[in-house]
Amino acid sequence: MNTVLLLVVASAYFASALPLDDQVVGIEKTYQRFIEFPDDEGNPHIVDLEAEPDWDFLSDLARNPNNNQYFLYTRRNNNRAQTLRINDAASIRNSNYNSRVPTVVVSHGWLNKQSSNVNQRIRDAFLGRSDVNVIVVEWRRLAMSDYITAMRGVPAVGRAVGQFIRFVINTVGGNLNDFHLIGFSLGSHVVGNAGRELGGRVARITGLDPAGPLWDNNNQRLNRNDGVYVEAIHTDGSVAGYGIGTPIARVDFFPNGGRSQPGCTTNVCDHNRSWELFAATVTHNHLVGNRCDNMNQVSNNNCRGPALPMGNDNLRKSGNGIFRVNTGRRYPYFF
Fold first, then answer.
1. Per-residue pLDDT tens digits for 29-86
2. Sorted alphabetically, which Pfam families does this protein's record hold (predicted)?
């Protein structure tokens, strides 16, 4: 079955306490204190948005970037990962990593791991398209913790990813102009923090339905300055949705209006559709949106501005604004 990949719903503020009433309010959405989310296997979990995070674990996480694991796939090892380690130059030099080709870095979301479908689908799409390095970031130790702890640990995870990328370049050469960072749900904010750690000089960052609840006012979220070109694809921005649902990047795509997706009957399906659509565009580069003047045009399917392809693997992509693209119900989602 498709992996259920969900965002972390938790506090956006690192220095302030959570509200004490029974509602947790963001800019556009209101969330009950207790919310049910399924895990990687579809089993339901009750989330308490007022839970106390594991401060000891978060302190260790901030001190130790080795909590992340990095798995390399190339056309020479497209199914069997090679493990890369920060501060271990031999693990880079003795691998199939090729500093002369582009590098794609993929970050999963909450309760996910290396083998989750989002990682496999994006990996296969890129390797099927061209000769690249694909590095899957597994931050499983934090991602498998409770929601509040995972949420608060995102910036440290992202900074560690940025430090790892810097170590790779310092070890075997290369250039940030050849890096594309991709994150799903909470992983969108992970790669945003990684790009920030690298001074916003990464060629491209793509956020796939970036995690929404309580990220509205969070200055640690993915933003337009985290890379040279930053794109977000919003697929589950409804009131009950898991995505942020509002523009946050340099270019924001809202497939089918960005709230619900053709063929989906649940928010889980809508949320996951972001990475399914993205992987399809890497292979086909076929979904083209039109620029919108405002979110009303997005909702009313009344966007008539310049066209721009959504997703794809173009490291030199450019653009600005909000866009709507219409898609079909099934892969490869031609409209």
1. 666 777 666 555 555 667 787 888 888 988 887 777 678 999 999 999 999 999 999 9
2. Lipase
Encoded tokens for 249: 């990047």
> Which strand (E) or helix (H) includes residue 278?
helix 267-284
Q: Is residue 180 annotated as a catalytic residue, yes or no?
A: no
Distances (CA, A) of 257 to 79, 176, 261, 303, 335: 35, 33, 8, 11, 14
Please report the DSSP string for 77-121 in residue order.
EEEEEEEE-TT-HHHHHTSS--TTS-EEEEE--BT--TTSHHHHH
The CATH number of the domain covering residues in 23-325: 3.40.50.1820
Helices (H), 9-65: 55-63
Choosing from 91, 95, 107, 185, the catalytic residue is 185
Q: Look up residue 54 and give its amino acid.
A: D
CA angle 21, 26, 29 (to 5 degrees): 100
State the helix-helix crossing angle for 147-172 and 55-63, rounded to 10 degrees.
10
Q: Which of 95, 108, 271, 274 is catalytic?
A: 271
Q: Is 271 in the active site?
A: yes
More confident position, 153 or 48? 153
Rounded Cα distance, 206 and 209, in Å: 10
| Better-predicted residue by pLDDT, 118 or 290 | 290
The number of angstroms, rounded, from the C-alpha of 10 to the middle of its chain's C-alpha atoms is 17
What does DSSP assign to residue 238? Answer: S
Whether 209 is catalytic: yes
Instruction: Please report the pLDDT score of residue 1 as a whole number.
Output: 40
